[in-house]
UniProtKB/TrEMBL annotation:
Residues 252-256 are annotated as: ACP-binding. It catalyses: malonyl-[ACP] + acetyl-CoA + H(+) = 3-oxobutanoyl-[ACP] + CO2 + CoA. This is Beta-ketoacyl-[acyl-carrier-protein] synthase III. The keyword Acyltransferase applies. The last Arg residue of the ACP-binding site is essential for the weak association between ACP/AcpP and FabH. NCBIfam families: fabH (TIGR00747), PRK09352.1 (NF006829).
């Protein structure tokens, strides 16, 4: 005798309900780094577009930053911690693999008994986490998901390596994902994602120094040619055109890469008034935290408004990439 299994009741789709972010207080300028390694302010600005970045002190843990950002996102959503059914922390910089960050973060925020797991696709982590969260909500598995991108890259830096120490920084950003009551309210589009494992060694942890190593030129060439097509595919999957996009938020890896992606979108019909995230200037590259940090900062600056159609594009180590169209809460 066969049985018929009952599935959870699905909903039309998912949408963002709230945003939050956290950065350490300490600002590290280019001049401060130039006192240690062979570089200068003009060189850093011209190569990667960074003027300053935030670095956490040794007593501030990744879980601390993730909890602060997550709590702010839950508050912004208008929900109670008890309304959250799952917590996803996208990160590649936990010092210890066990216990995971997500369960600790949920406990600190006061979220009782959620599903809780970490996700590591490095700089594309938030976009991956958002895609997983949207499908969990759409499938009826949970009603509300807290997605956090959090990194303490300073724990993995060789501060004498000019190629990396000028780029990476610390911080966390978060979003709450919930159900869309009808098809017209869907606010998270389909994900366009993938990987390029043949490029996996371009960003890695050096087995001898246990520090982050990056082959900058190889990553730059890959990103400036491969990222824009992924972004355009996400627009297509959402049933839109580049002219429908109000805000472009690529991973804040390098200002020149951000500008190259925007240029490709303009060539395909994006509007002249497209707003492009440039959070890297004062935040540096915060890996999986960079997209939600940029979203929260742009909103605070008045450059992002409720109802705006946003194109999010994450890419990084793996190499992995993901993009989706999202409506601002």
């Amino acid at each position: 005798m066969s049985v018929v299994l009952r599935l959870a009741e699905s909903v039309p789709g998912a949408r963002l309900l709230g945003l939050g972010s956290f950065q350490p207080d300490r600002v590290v300028t280019n001049d401060e780094l130039a006192a240690r390694v062979d570089t200068n302010d003009e060189w850093i600005r011209s190569r990667v577009g960074i003027e300053s970045r935030r670095i956490a002190d040794k007593d501030t843990m990744l879980v601390d930053m993730a909890s602060d950002a997550g709590a702010l996102a839950v508050k912004d959503s208008g929900l109670e911690p008890s309304d959250i059914g799952a917590v996803i922390v996208a990160t590649c910089t936990m010092i210890d693999n066990i216990p995971n960050a997500a369960a600790q973060v949920a406990h600190r925020i006061g979220i009782p008994t959620p599903a809780a797991f970490d996700l590591n696709t490095a700089c594309s982590g938030f976009a991956y986490g958002l895609a997983v969260a949207a499908d969990l909500v759409r499938g009826g598995t949970v009603r509300h998901v807290l997605v956090i991108g959090a990194e303490k890259l300073s724990d993995w830096m060789d501060w004498d390596d000019r190629a990396t120490c000028i780029i990476f920084a610390d911080g966390a950003g978060a979003a709450v994902v919930g159900p869309a009551p009808d098809a017209e309210s869907v606010g998270v589009g389909p994900v366009a994602w993938g990987s390029a494992g043949d490029q996996s060694q371009t960003i890695r942890i050096n087995p001898d120094t246990r520090a982050l190593h990056q082959e900058g030129q190889a990553v730059f060439r890959w990103a400036t040619t491969r990222v824009a097509p992924v972004a355009l595919r996400a627009v297509e999957l959402a049933g839109l055109t580049p002219a429908d996009i109000d805000v472009l938020v690529p991973h804040q890896a390098n200002l020149r890469i951000v500008e190259a992606v925007a240029k490709r979108l303009h060539a395909k019909g994006a509007r002249d008034d497209l707003r492009v995230a440039d959070d890297i200037i004062h935040s540096g590259n915060t890996s999986s935290a960079s997209i939600p940090l940029a979203l929260d900062h742009m909103r605070a600056q008045g450059r992002l408004r409720s109802g705006d159609t946003m194109l999010l594009v994450g890419f990084g180590a793996g190499l992995s990439y993901a993009a989706q169209v999202v409506v601002c809460p």
